[in-house]
Amino acid sequence: MARSRLVSALVPLSLLLTLVARGTTLGAQEKTLRWPSIAVKAHLDQDGQLHVKETQVMVFDGDWNGGERRFSVALQQHFDVERLVRVDSASGADVTMVGGDLDRVDGFDLKGSNTVRWRSRLESDPPFVNAQRVYRLEYSYGNILVPEGDSYRLNHDFAFSDREGPIDAFTLNLTLDPVWGAPAGFTGSFGPERLDPGYGFVVDIALSYRGAGRPGDVMFGAGIGERLALLVAVGIGVLLLGARFASRELSLGRFAAPMPVDVVTGDWLQARVLAHRAEVIGAAWDEETGTAEVTAVLARLESEGKLKSRVETKQVLMFKQHVLYMELLVARDVLGDYERALIDALFNAGQTKTDTNLIKKRYQAKGFTPSTKIEGPLKQLVNRLVPNDVPPPRPRRTLTIALMVGALVLFIAAGAMQPSDLVLAALGSLAIGFT
User: Fold this and answer.
1) Which of 146, 251, 349, 370 is deepest in the core (most CB within 10 A)?
2) 394: DSSP letter
3) pLDDT digits 0-9 by tens, 41-60
4) pLDDT (tens digit per residue) in 253-302
5) End-to-end CA distance of the chain
6) What angle separates helix 375-385 from helix 278-286, to the nearest 10 degrees?
7) Are the C-beta atoms of residues 243 and 237 closer than 8 Å to each other?
8) How far, in Å, CA of 271 to CA of 268, rounded?
9) Which residues lie closer than 8 Å to 315 by C-beta, 6 or more apart?
């Protein structure tokens, strides 16, 4: 009896779970979107601009908020949404939709540079049940034709592949201004054709131009004469810069014959290098005073018994911290001028011990560059060591300013003539900067 009651209780429960599972599955499947038809009427005007009127018949099932259309826009092309219209199902009249407002039904907005979204239902409204809506999108493309020798290539997807559902009947009527000549057999009429999700409708044809001059809405590159002139100008500029560089390097003795190896003997090294302090030789070598020269001073003081140092490594969680400890072993009065200046900067007044943590704490607010304490005296020693050394000439500021102004003018001109060129110019500038 107990078993039969258990079975009697489990059977309705299992049926309930089955129905819930089926209801969940059916509910997930109820949200569908399909297009019984999309009819596109496109016209290529005499300047090469493409004007499109696209009528979408959509059937919503579920809690859709509206529609979305992503357009394929190449870098050099111009794309403009002129208006969106909902065709009233009862009267067939056009209801002009409101741009820039997605919070209201029959509002639309442009997201990014190539995506249009429109609202068909408020979130508080009941979900759609096999609801049909008809929308007409009117838009245009500029610079859509690509010059190819004596012809112009139109290669464009008049549908959109990233859809939720299929298009049962896609039709396209493409008309051309009389100045455009189409290939033999071209009628401009395509479809009806079924397009499954993931498939677009690309028309790829070469057109001839019968008008005078060039079409006004086609981007042309430089002609052969302009390209040759630009190449010659760039070549002359490179030659001038190369000559200037060679002249500067020659004045610095960079092209002089190297010193014979047999001249560099032990006596020569002792007289020319080893007889001088390491920090002086370092400053003379690269004509700069930095961390290497500061390290050389401290190392020399330690080798002379005036300073003692050690490095300890401390483990802080997973990180290691290296701390330099220094102890002054002599009175500061016995130190030379820049030695005393460096020690006074590293050690607190009256103290003979310090470490890198204390130094960081001391200069935390104002910062500290120890090489500035020895730079002036070292420069004087270097001048006495190499009295006839002529410093390298510095680039003229006028030339640098002129080049920067010229680059800025070119950037502005590129933006005014073709905004997409700014992207290429910026990428080129970044590449030059990294190299």
Assistant:
1) 370
2) P
3) 999 999 999 999 999 999 99
4) 778 888 888 888 888 888 888 888 999 999 888 888 999 999 999 999 99
5) 87
6) 80
7) no
8) 5
9) 321
